[in-house]
Structures are given as structure tokens and as C-alpha cells.
Predict the structure of MBL fold metallo-hydrolase.
Amino acid sequence: MKLIMLGCGTSTGVPRIGGADGRGDWGDCDPDEPRNRRSRVSIVVENRAGARLLVDTSPDLRSQLLANGIDKVDAVFWTHDHADHTHGIDDLRPMRYGRGAPIPGYGHEETVRRLRNRFGYVFAGQHGYLTICSIDTLDRLRMCAGFGVRSCQMDHGPAQSTAFRFECDGRSIGYATDFSAINRDMVDLFYGCDLLVVDCLKREPHPTHAHLAMSLELAEACRVKRAVLTHMDRSMDYATLSAEVPPHVLVGYDGLVLEA
């Protein structure tokens, strides 16, 4: 399987709007290092047959898909309903053109309910426009477009986020973004993964996200072969952080492609 990291930034991205000259607040990140420029989080997983699953529809989705040459996906999965993970949903519209049916979409029951309420036109059509996506819960889903799919719930401060494990061709990719505590279900889900993409907002503890020590703890507890850090803020300079982490842990960046 292949992982395509569309975006790996926090909810405001890196650089954040602002800065002394109005050209962006880079914090501790070196503005001359291209891998520090981070759009909001989203990934694609792809198998040998070319089937693709998209996880989350970030507000930067259009530019992410164009930058990575992706013009179709076979299904969409949402981790939760927060704006930085969903508000690019309308950018799925061009990938609906030429399809005989809406793009299948999936999420946890509460995520599905909230997305239907917020983006009714996407899932039901409106004013002559086609339905862009269908949406269903994950309860009975075991396979999708040739991928095995497993999931569990994670604490995300007072909210929850969904963790995913995708399996195909004897390989596995796990995705754990937006969590603030490690639970037994997460360890069971990710145990032995070939590749785990893991939330890592900053070095210091945070009430709604994993910090560096927690991210490394999850990777170690799950005995994953490789881990990739994501959802990083402007305190996480690429080169500095790369020098800190173990050899089997990579600092993610927009456009990173890895084989699992």
C-alpha cells in the first residue's frame, strides 16, 4: 500500500496568518524549509490496483489534490466533524462528475449525524445538483474498495475522533489524528502496523491533542514498524524535530509518499 500525506498541519496551518510583515507567522519553523509549510491534515491510501481512500476533507483539499495529481477517490472517511477536517467537502464535487453514483462516505454515528446536518446538500443534492456523497456509519463496514477497514474511538479532549486501520496486499496503515489519550482499543487496533500516522501537535502536553512523548508512546506500545508524525503546529520545525525522533519515526510533510 501507499500513503500520500496531503496535509500535516494544525487547524491554522503553518505558517499561521499574521506575522510582522503580514506574510505569515512561522513560530519556530524555518520559513526557508519547504517541509515546514503545512496545510490542514488529510491523507490518501492507495493499493496496487489503484484504488484510493481519502481520509478527511480539509479546507485545503482542492490544492492538495491538484498538487498530488489525484483526480478520483473510491471512498471518503471522516475522523470527526471539526472544521479543519471537513470544510473542504465541496471540493469532492469534481470527482463526482462522470460517476454513476455518489462517492461513498463513512464515519462514526455522531460524525455522520453532524455532517448530514451541516452539509445536507452534499448528501441529498439540492436545486438540481447531484448528490456528491452518500454517507453511512462504520458499524457494519469491513471492506471498502478492496481494503480491509477497522476503526475505534479516541478521546479528543471533550470530543471524540475515529482511528482507522486500512489493510490490503498484506500491508497495514494506521491513522490516529486528534487524540488526547491512549486507550486499549487504540493499541489493539494499531498493533503491528507497518505504518502509523500519528497526531503530534507540539512537545508540551495539550488538552485535546497528543504531544511528542505521547505520540512516541503509542508507536512503541503498538510495535509499529514505522510511524509518521502529523497535525504539527508552528513550534515543530522539521529539521529540529527530525534530529530528535528515533530512526523508525519520520516527521511528516505535505506531499510525503511512503510505501507500507
Summary: The domain at 2-259 is CATH 3.60.15.10 (Metallo-beta-lactamase; Chain A). The two ends are 5 Å apart (CA to CA). The longest helix spans residues 109-118.
